[in-house]
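Subject: Sanity check before I submit

Could someone independently write out the structure tokens for this chain? I want to compare against mine line by line before I put it in a report. The sequence has 114 residues.
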Amino acid sequence: MKFLNYADKVQVMTAARRKGNISVDHKNVMSCFISADLLKHRKLFDSAKRELASLSISELRYGIIHPAKLLVTFKGKRHIFDVAPQAEAFVQQLKSKHPTHPEASESASDSEQR
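---
Independent answer below. Compare away.
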């Protein structure tokens, strides 16, 4: 939510924290309060998550765990990354071992046609 007046924002956030979950028509409107710094840290994993999403590997699952770590489960083994460069290196390893990625299959088909 955006507020024009900072004091109003502080009052709403304080009341929301005191109350806990706020729901409208049985749907949560406010439940979790995450700092801007934490959101920025989580956002660093976005490129790795996009790359993981583009892979079509059935035994691959991933997500962000609290506070800001990327959890990747591949073939039943869990990998937890604290920093984005480690996660991106792992994604590159997966891409090289599993050429089911569209870009990899395009380059392979281009070399076969020649």
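---
OP: Matches mine. For the report I'm noting this point. Residues 1-33 form one domain.
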